[in-house]
């Protein structure tokens, strides 16, 4: 499947005279789709600035608070599971609009909640929006991007996610600063922590409005027998050259008499297609290396080295900036050196840094309350290792997994398989998030487990993940649906 020399690979058709214009169009529509990722990141992280205020205002214990925080992840898993099926029935753009409405409802519902279970309800609604966005953006971007720049455009999803996380940190800090504290009244007598949620209404409205300005996926249009509309979109994206060949190849990979269903993910001989297992594996490993522990609980690490709570909050923002910058590295490299090499480099870097942290925390001293202390050189090394871990993840597993999930599945099963993989990712995220607090007194063990997962992730990629750089989506159809699951390229490693 991989290309040789300078010839186009399969459906990697030359764009023709309109290459620059069509490239700009592809970037614009991919950027709009990726806005769902920005809301995804914002909604995921905004709760951090409001946690203490929610506990104080509603007088709830740690267990109820933990459920309120994690409830969005449960909604995300449900949203991801259903998004693909819905997108196959009503289209990619319609699902984007639904996600925007869910974000808007969540923003107002959570912002004006008067008891904790209302917070939980609307966090779940926002979580469903997050899950839907996590599926529809990579699928749509893959289906509308020229193969030569598909990796860079697919990486916009992760760039938007980490930018959304950073934006929520900044907005939370500004609102908290303006009010004199998260639980102090701001405009119209509404507390600052409530404005943190209400502020999400702005990007939600922008996302919903811009969804009206981009075309439907040509693959969905062909599947819906809307060939003239598909021809028009493909002409805009790829130019006129070889247009009918492209349309015919898409039709061949989508031919079916029945409606899309979960049964499409099963081989005729029984069991899931191998490529579906690969997608699930990528999703689970992305979370099991513990990246969200670094973001959700980074203050524990900073305070262990002796920083105050306020200083720790500032350094958490710095870590999120590093994550944004390293995603730009991935965007620059992914279509040059490929997906698989980036993942292998990232796994190696994550393994070294996580095992370093595991060794340091295993030898840390604990105070009377069980908090670790890292005096001297050990603390400095731990901080450097933590930030280098973010660099290794941000330039590889962060963006590349979303790119692969968008492009690695055949047209016929893309939405459903991506939905299942994304649901697995949210379930893994939830599992890592809820288990970490119990491991706070055993950080050496926790980071050791994440380090082991980083090593296993590298072996998994080396053995099972195929290179998709420059390969057309139609060329991924081949043996995947005919044989026992994996394409030849994947079997050859």
Topology:
Elements: H1 19-46, H2 51-58, H3 62-90, H4 92-111, H5 116-144, H6 150-179, H7 192-198, H8 201-210, H9 218-223, H10 227-238, H11 243-254, H12 274-288, H13 291-296, H14 298-304, H15 309-337, H16 339-362, E1 365-366, E2 372-373, H17 377-394, H18 397-407, H19 414-435, H20 443-464, H21 488-491
Antiparallel strand pairs: 1-2
Helix pairs in contact: 1-4, 1-5, 1-6, 1-8, 3-4, 3-5, 3-19, 4-5, 4-7, 4-8, 5-6, 5-18, 5-19, 6-7, 6-15, 6-18, 12-18, 12-19, 12-20, 14-15, 15-16, 15-17, 16-17, 16-18, 16-20
Question: What can you see in these coordinates?
Answer:
This protein is mostly helical and 493 residues long. The protein folds into 2 domains: 13-214, MFS general substrate transporter like domains (Growth Hormone, Chain: A), CATH 1.20.1250.20; 262-493, Up-down Bundle (Growth Hormone, Chain: A). The chain has 21 helices and 2 strands. The chain has helices at 19-46, 51-58, 62-90, 92-111, 116-144, 150-179, 192-198, 201-210, 218-223, 227-238, 243-254, 274-288, 291-296, 298-304, 309-337, 339-362, 377-394, 397-407, 414-435, 443-464, 488-491, and strands spanning 365-366, 372-373. The chain has a two-stranded antiparallel ribbon. The longest helix has 30 residues, at 150-179. It is globular. The N and C termini lie close together (12 Å). 52% of the residues are buried.
**So, CATH architecture of the largest domain?**
Up-down Bundle
| Mean pLDDT across all amino acids | 83
Here the CATH topology of the largest domain equals Growth Hormone, Chain: A
Total count of helical runs of at least 4 residues: 21
What is the number of strand segments? 2
Helix content class? over 70%
Quickly name the level 1 CATH class of the largest domain.
Mainly Alpha
Radius of gyration using CA atoms only: 23 Å
Name the poorly predicted regions.
Answer: 1-21, 479-493
Q: Report how far apart the termini are.
A: 12 Å
Largest sheet: 2 strands, antiparallel
Strand numbers in spatial order across the main sheet: 1-2
Summing up helix and strand content along with how strands pair, one would put the structural category as: mainly alpha
């Amino acid at each position: 499947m991989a290309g040789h020399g300078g010839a186009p690979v399969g459906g990697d058709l030359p764009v023709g005279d309109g290459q620059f214009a069509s490239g700009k169009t592809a970037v614009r529509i991919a950027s709009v789709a990726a806005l769902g990722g920005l809301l995804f990141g914002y909604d995921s992280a905004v709760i951090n600035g409001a946690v203490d205020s929610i506990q104080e205002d509603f007088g709830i214990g740690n267990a109820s608070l933990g459920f309120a925080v994690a409830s969005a992840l449960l909604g995300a898993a449900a949203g991801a599971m259903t998004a693909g099926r819905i997108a196959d029935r009503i289209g990619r753009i319609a699902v984007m609009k639904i996600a925007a409405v869910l974000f808007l409802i969540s923003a107002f519902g959570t912002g004006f909640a008067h008891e904790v279970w209302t917070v939980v309800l609307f966090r779940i609604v926002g979580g469903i929006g997050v899950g839907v966005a996590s599926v529809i953006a990579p699928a749509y971007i893959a289906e509308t991007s020229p193969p030569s720049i598909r990796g860079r455009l697919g990486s916009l999803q992760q760039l938007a996610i980490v930018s959304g996380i950073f934006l929520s940190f900044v907005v939370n800090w500004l609102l908290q600063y303006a009010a004199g504290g998260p639980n102090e009244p701001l405009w119209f007598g509404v507390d600052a922590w409530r404005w943190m949620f209400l502020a999400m209404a702005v990007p939600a409205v922008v996302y919903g409005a811009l969804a009206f300005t981009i075309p439907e996926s040509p693959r969905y249009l062909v599947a819906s027998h809307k060939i003239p509309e598909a021809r028009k979109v493909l002409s805009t994206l790829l130019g006129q050259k070889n247009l009918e060949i492209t349309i015919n190849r898409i039709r061949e990979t989508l031919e079916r008499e029945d409606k899309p269903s979960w049964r499409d993910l099963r081989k005729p001989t029984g069991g899931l297609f191998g490529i579906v297992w690969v997608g699930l594996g990528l999703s689970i490993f992305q979370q099991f290396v513990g990246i969200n522990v670094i973001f959700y609980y980074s203050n524990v690490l900073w305070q262990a080295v002796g920083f105050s709570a306020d200083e720790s909050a500032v350094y958490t923002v710095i870590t999120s900036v590093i994550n944004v910058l390293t995603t730009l590295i991935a965007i620059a490299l992914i279509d040059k050196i490929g997906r698989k090499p980036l993942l292998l480099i990232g796994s190696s870097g994550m393994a070294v840094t996580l095992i370093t942290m595991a060794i340091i925390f295993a030898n840390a001293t604990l105070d009377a309350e069980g908090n670790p202390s890292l005096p001297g050189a050990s603390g400095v090394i731990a901080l450097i290792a933590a930030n280098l871990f973010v660099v290794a993840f941000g330039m590889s597993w962060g963006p590349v997994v979303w790119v692969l999930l968008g492009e690695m599945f055949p047209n016929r099963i893309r939405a459903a398989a991506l939905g299942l993989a994304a649901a697995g990712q949210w379930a893994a995220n939830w599992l890592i998030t809820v288990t970490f607090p119990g491991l706070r007194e055993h950080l050496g063990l926790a980071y050791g487990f994440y380090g082991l997962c980083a090593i296993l992730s590298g072996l998994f990629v080396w053995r099972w993940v195929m290179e998709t750089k420059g390969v057309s989506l139609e060329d991924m159809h081949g043996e995947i649906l005919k044989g026992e699951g994996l394409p030849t390229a994947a079997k050859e490693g």
